[in-house]
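step=encode ok
step=design start
structure_in=
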């Protein structure tokens, strides 16, 4: 047998997976397609199998947060709906009916193992505002300290199009960051990420060390079950968010839950490739609805991207959009490449007369308050260039 060192990616991956077996705090996300169907509502067998694996892990001393989709899907059959509704109002109605059914099943299944569960419903607004995300952390942290398994879902009943996460995969990544989890496990009905369509003989990708490993990979969209909103693309995005902010992530099937939590070689492992960031900046990079666009000259692009400086009025050549102070905006180069996102300090009505002028000139001409940065470096997040991965069926 050939001796390998930790410089070997395969061995490093193995050591990281083994650490999952002894992790103190793990966020597990399960998708609608793994728990429900349009015809049968909640699948008791699937839910029980998942709960068995999670409860065993919890009773062994690991803190578990379960981010569970399925509320809307669980509400379809009771409401006589043949498929997932497209309009927000009917989605909200289905979620209102289905969330109670889903929690009742979880409560019953976990109680058989002596584990208490709680319901935590979040909106994107809860993670973008400092006071609310602090309160969310305190509540979740206390529940974990009390031995409870929090069951987290998006608050679909009250969420609007503008403030929705869009899918629970990204919600799970942000929750993992919020509670300072050791790892994120994303479960669905697909056992791993493949280098192409599995039906065409594609191979499993066991390890992703960074965005470069995903170049030219065909990634699937939402499946045919008709009850979910994600698909492999959202799993990869969520795993990449986690790995880029200091949290290991694993993508695999719900059937592999026990094996995954034991650190076995299943699914696709995403190694950490970045440092932990404020949750507000993760929201800004991945969830914020951009209200406007600022075009930067070459000097400003270099200052923001390479020197990590604040954006000043002198470096902006053009603006577009309708925004207020505090809104998220994109910063783009002249070729259209998005360089960064940030929270702007001025409205779209104020900025045009400020373009190309130094903060000193603005302070003298327009008074105090106009000598600030347009986007402060602390409210700015750099964006990686989009990868060339293809979106497959």
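sequence_out=
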């Amino acid at each position: 047998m050939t001796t390998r060192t930790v410089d070997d990616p395969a061995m490093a991956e193995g050591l990281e997976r083994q650490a999952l077996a002894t992790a103190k705090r793990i966020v597990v996300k399960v998708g609608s397609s793994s728990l429900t169907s349009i015809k049968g509502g909640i699948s008791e067998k699937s839910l029980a199998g998942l709960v068995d694996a999670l409860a065993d892990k919890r009773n062994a001393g690991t803190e578990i947060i379960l981010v569970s989709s399925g509320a809307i899907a669980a509400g379809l059959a009771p409401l006589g709906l043949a498929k997932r509704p497209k309009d927000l109002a009917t989605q909200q109605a289905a979620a209102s009916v289905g969330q109670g059914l889903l929690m009742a099943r979880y409560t019953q299944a976990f109680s058989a193992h002596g584990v208490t569960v709680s319901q935590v419903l979040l909106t994107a607004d809860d993670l973008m505002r400092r006071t609310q995300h602090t309160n969310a952390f305190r509540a979740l942290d206390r529940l974990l300290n009390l031995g409870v398994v929090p069951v987290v879902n998006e608050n679909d009943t009250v969420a609007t199009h503008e403030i929705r996460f869009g899918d629970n995969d990204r919600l799970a990544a942000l929750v993992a960051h919020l509670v300072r989890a050791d790892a994120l496990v994303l479960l669905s009905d697909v056992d791993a990420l493949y280098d192409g369509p599995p039906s065409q003989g594609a191979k499993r990708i066991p390890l992703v060390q960074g965005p470069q490993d995903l170049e030219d990979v065909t990634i699937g969209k939402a499946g045919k079950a008709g009850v979910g909103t994600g698909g492999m693309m959202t799993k990869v995005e969520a795993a990449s968010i986690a790995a880029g902010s200091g949290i290991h992530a694993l993508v695999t099937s719900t059937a592999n839950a026990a094996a995954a939590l034991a650190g076995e070689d299943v699914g696709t492992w995403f190694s950490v490739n970045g440092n932990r960031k404020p949750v507000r900046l993760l929201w800004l990079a991945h969830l914020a609805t951009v209200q406007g666009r600022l075009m930067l000259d070459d000097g400003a692009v270099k200052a923001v991207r390479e020197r990590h400086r604040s954006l000043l009025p002198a470096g902006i050549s053009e603006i577009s959009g309708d925004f207020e102070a505090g809104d998220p905006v994109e910063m783009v180069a002249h070729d259209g490449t998005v360089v960064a996102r940030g929270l702007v300090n001025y409205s779209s009505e104020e900025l045009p007369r400020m373009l190309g002028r130094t903060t000193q000139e603005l302070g003298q001409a327009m008074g105090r308050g106009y000598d600030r940065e347009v986007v402060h470096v602390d409210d700015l997040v750099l964006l990686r260039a989009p990868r060339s991965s293809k979106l497959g069926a």
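step=design ok
step=annotate ok -> Residues 361 and 367 are 9 Å apart (CA to CA).
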